[in-house]
Amino acid sequence: MLDVEVSSLGPGVIERALGCLRNGHHAETDVPYATLSSLLERAVEAQASDVHLVPGYPATFRIHGELAPVDGEALAPGDVRRMVEAILPERVRGRLETERNFDCSVAVSSGGQSHRFRANVYLAQGNWCACLRHVPTEIPTLEWLGFPDALAARLASHSNGLVIVTGVTGSGKTSTLAALVSLLRRDASLRILTIEEPIEYLHPVQGGSMVTQREVGRDVDSFADGLKYGLRQDPDVILVGEIRDRETAQMALSAAETGHLILTTLHTRDAKGALTRLVDLFPQDQQDDVRSQLALSLRSIVCQHLLPSAQPGQRRALALEVLHNNLAVQVAIRTGKIETIESAIQTGKREGMFLLDEDLQRLVSAGQVTLETARRYASDPAAITATKPAW
Fold first, then answer.
1. Percentage of residues of the chain with pLDDT beyond 70
2. Going by DSSP bridges, is the β-strand pair 101-110/298-307 parallel, antiparallel, or unpaired?
3. S-S: 295 plus which of 78, 219, 273, 330, CB 3.0-4.6 Å?
4. 8: closest CA among 78, 93, 72, 75?
5. Residue 10, pLDDT above cutoff 50
6. Element (H, E) at 124
7. Which residues contact 312 (CB under 8 A, 6 or more apart)?
8. CA 33, 39, 45, 48 torsion: positive or negative?
9. 361 has pLDDT over 60
10. How far is residue 289 from each of residues 69, 214, 224, 311, measured CA to CA in Å?
């Protein structure tokens, strides 16, 4: 039988939760297809990125971007609740009824190996549900991610400023940042601080650079507090898991201006959307000042998407849009003319910039994604062709 460990993100709560069988439940009667622990083990074996537990549906894996029911039998509300209870400390379970959402990190141990999951437990129509995302034990390499070495080297070469990795949920932003931190660690002189919710990839202690990982809700109350106090911890590089609010955005911009390299993520579909989202976190009367600050502190924005492979069952393909801050981009940001950003990217090809549609065309020409898939993600679907155009 497998053990399930939980590090709750509720303030000060670090508990051990036991598997369904240890809670007195029996897989053959209460959970017809499996205990939670064995289900997570199957997810690892199937190379699933996510496990969905929703009453009325079978337990479902997401494998290479596609949903795949595990078994034919639908889960009853009681089945899901018992599995959720297996990963939540008893004194925390009552909070779910009032807060309606809860985050935790789950470690499943089997045969001497540990597999980690990021879990979000939530209510839907009064029923308990859960989504558990598998976090690989090893930090991915740039080659495995399909992330260009030259681009990664450029991002890591900045001594200060703001680097934003953006994209929709599940587009691999956390993996990209973890790989960039690994690259930065080659410089033994760097002191790196990460502020995450939750901590996903663990950076092992090793010679040279020093990495401190702080978890929101356990080690620090918020991203903003992590930045505020982190600036007093002698960092060279600060990774902020996500900018969600004005206070965090202001702290990140200020830290980027004062000689620190800030790596962070936003949830947007393209590079210009990241600029708009960041500015819109502030009141109207502050936005001109924020644009001026952003124009000076921004270094690069990388927007990424994971697309289904042209070969069924294969790992998804990474498509990118890249913006580097040059004079034209600075003017667009400072004046609020975000609609000119695409033109600035197109004219900045020699500086390493390119639009998402150009990268989609590259993937089609290389046979990595289908034409239909590329057009579904493109800003101008008609511009994506079966053969490489003379761009």
1. 87
2. unpaired
3. 330
4. 93
5. no
6. strand 113-124
7. none
8. positive
9. yes
10. 50, 30, 20, 48
Each residue of 27-39: pLDDT tens digit? Answer: 333 343 346 888 8
- What is the distance between the alpha carbons of residues 47 and 68, in angstroms, rounded to a whole number? 12
Q: Is 104 helix (H, G, I), strand (E, B) or coil?
A: strand
CATH of 142-354, one of 3.40.50.720, 3.30.2420.10, 3.40.50.300, 3.40.1190.20: 3.40.50.300
Fold type of domain 3-135: Beta-Lactamase (3.30.450)
Q: What is the pLDDT of residues 49-104, one digit of tens each?
A: 899 999 999 999 999 888 999 877 899 998 898 888 877 766 667 777 777 888 77
C-beta of residue 82 within 8 angstroms of C-beta of residue 31: yes
pLDDT tens across 118-139, in order?
888 899 998 999 999 988 778 9
pLDDT tens readout for residues 261-278? 999 999 999 999 999 999
DSSP calls for 243-285: --SHHHHHHHHHHHHTT-EEEEEE--SSHHHHHHHHHHTS-GG
Q: How far apart are CA 73 and CA 319, in angstroms?
A: 36
Of 271, 262, 299, the C-alpha closest to 184 is 262
Topology alike, domains 3-135 and 142-354? no
- In whole angstroms, how far apart are CA 117 and each of 40, 68, 219, 250, 316? 9, 18, 19, 31, 20
Residue 121's closest CA among 172, 54, 43, 46?
54
Q: Which two tokens stand for residue 146?
A: 């399909």
Strands 161-166 and 60-63: unpaired
Helical H segments across the chain, by residue range: 36-45, 77-85, 90-99, 142-145, 149-157, 173-184, 223-230, 246-257, 271-280, 287-297, 327-335, 341-346, 356-365, 371-377
Q: Give the residue with greater pLDDT, 377 vs 47.
A: 377
Give this prediction's pTM: 0.81
Residue 77 to residue 169: CA distance in whole angstroms: 26
Residue 345 tokens read as 């990217």
Please say whether the beta carbons of 104 and 67 come within 8 A. Answer: no
